[in-house]
Amino acid sequence: MKHIASSALHLAATCLSSTVLFAQPLPESEEKQLVEAHCNTCHASNRISSSLGYSQPDWQALIATMVNLDGNPNREKITAYLAEHFPPSTRRSPQLPQGDIRVNFKEWVVPTLGQRARDPIEAPDGRIWWAGQWGNIIGRIDPQTGEMREYSLPAGAKPHSVTHDSQGNIWYTGNKNGTVGMLNPETGKITEYKMPAPNAKDPHTAIFDSKGILWFTLQHSNMIGRLNPQTEEIKLVTMPTEDARPYGIKIDKNGTPWVACNGSNCLVKVEPNSMTLREYPLPNKNTTVRRLDIADDGMIWYVNSGQGRLGRFNPQTGEVKEWPSPSGANSHPYAIAVIGDAVWYNESGMRPDALVRFDRKTEAFQSWPIPTGAGNKQIYAGIVRHMRPTRDGNLLIHQSATNRIILVKPEGEKK
Known about the structure:
Elements: H1 7-15, H2 30-39, H3 46-49, H4 56-64, H5 75-85, E1 102-109, E2 117-122, E3 128-132, E4 137-141, E5 148-152, E6 159-164, E7 170-174, E8 179-183, E9 190-194, E10 203-208, E11 214-218, E12 223-228, E13 233-238, E14 246-251, E15 257-261, E16 266-270, E17 277-281, E18 289-294, E19 300-304, E20 309-313, E21 320-324, E22 333-339, E23 342-347, E24 354-359, E25 365-369, E26 373-374, E27 377-378, E28 388-389, E29 395-399, E30 404-411
Antiparallel strand pairs: 1-30, 2-3, 3-4, 4-5, 6-7, 7-8, 8-9, 10-11, 11-12, 12-13, 14-15, 15-16, 16-17, 18-19, 19-20, 20-21, 22-23, 23-24, 24-25, 26-27, 28-29, 29-30
Helix pairs in contact: 4-5
InterPro entries: Cyt_c-like_dom_sf, Vgb, WD40/YVTN_repeat-like_dom_sf
Pfam families: Vgb_lyase
Protein name: Virginiamycin B lyase
């Protein structure tokens, strides 16, 4: 079993399980210095104060999902300090409307601690792949046996997401070294494709169209990319709006890519041949969109992350309709998937991170807390950053803060 060496990295990762909506300074004490020494190597310590809060055993359980600190002389001091100053609270509790659908959560804990496992996807052979961004790995689960295997990537890749092509090769976005990579699962060989421009630094989310062309976003580079694996040609275009931050990307039934803007109130349509971009502004200027998905009727569903709303865009008429998410304006919807008559997404600003189902016919919401197991405990650490359906109509999600890949099986609905 592989483990990332630095305990600082792992303790920092526990702090990243939440947003900074409720951040406050850490209380002064000797233990504060220990916490800052471990956490601040990777991010500001205000991530801790914005968490849900836990008892000391639960802080220990949460940290144990990131790193094995058995024998570390500072573990008790750190967790006692955290429990005293950041005990369990309900300040970010979600609203969980009830309904007739039941869900079953099946968890897999991935081998390498602290990797921040994310973005699971089902490959054509039924195996599940994920990206371990902080561990610089991608991994595979056999859902029938539970067997897992992890593959180390070229130095500095830090994969943001994974996808697959029609031949079963696994592709990842090298978010920190400006590459897109392909893994041949049969041979273990990795082929890297470097971005052709020095300012194209952070490939983010990728998806194949029906012709075998890979489309991908580059969020902070503010670009959209296209890779033809046959010719190895990469073409990049810059977004019309400065700092639009292209994030999620999906392909409609006509082979046209659509992109979500995480830095602006827009959706963007990409003309596949010329890569001309057409921007569709969304009504509220404070809207930001993490991800989107496209229903079988062509409607584009998106999460209005900045306003805590679920949205629908009609590409034929330009009509936009939005619904307030059950937990309100600070719920920060993040991942989204359309399966049949249901739109699934999560409220990443809440603790526990809530899984939400919206019925497209009745416009009714139903929500469930997403668990993160730790022995017999549920520590609810969050968060889901991407979700994708399986071929049999189930849902793959994750809890990146605690290295869980999760299969959600809805019961009581038609698929």
